[in-house]
Amino acid sequence: MNDTTxxxxxxxxxxxxxxxxxxxxLYVMHPFISxxxxxxxxxYTLFIIVFVIAFLVLFRSRRSRTVAAVLGLPTIAxxxxxxxxxxxxxxxxxxxxxxxPALFLFxxxxxxLETIFRxxxxxxxxxxxxxxxxxxxxxxxxxxxxxxxxxxxxAFMLSETLGELPSEGxxxxxLFTYFSFCxxxxxxYGDIIPKGPGARTLAWVEAVIGQFYVAxxxxxxxxxxxxxxxxxxxxxxxxxxxxxxxx
Length: 247
Fold this sequence. Notes:
mainly alpha, 8 helices, globular, 247 residues
């Protein structure tokens, strides 16, 4: 019982760091996920685990847990449907597997930032949380791109080096996760080009959000951490100065 309590306490203390590590692990293995490999089941099982951990650790209020459940449970249903019922309606699968995850990831990023700036102390875990929010934004936009592509197949144009657009959901999502982070960081290799007005709008909106996030939110968080460290050093310095030579 004590071991379980200690584990939960440590998980809540380093909740953002654990989330970032799991997200990074998912991103590393994501390109290798395909419906034809055993990693497909493992990858989306890990996605469900991330959801459960976020639900238990990040969402502490009843309101946030209710919203997370409303957005997250359809995602889990979509994962199960895609695995157990591969012949289900593609349109329904796209809505469940891309719209709800995107909304859930956006909501999680907002909750992370709200928690970070509400806490009185800015810790290393808080900085990791800001990084985690950045990763969640990139993943959320990748789902939005896949959702757009499901209803507008000509929304994007691929260069000859990439070949044809993958038909499998996992491979396609992996490709647009790559495109999403290239857009979020304004890297812009140009191997995936948004053609339609909706795709172009999403691309520039993501680029603006990515620059704003780094320039304002992360910079503000680091400034708060530095000011907190300086404020903590002042009492110690004053205590040292107040000691008399005889002491």
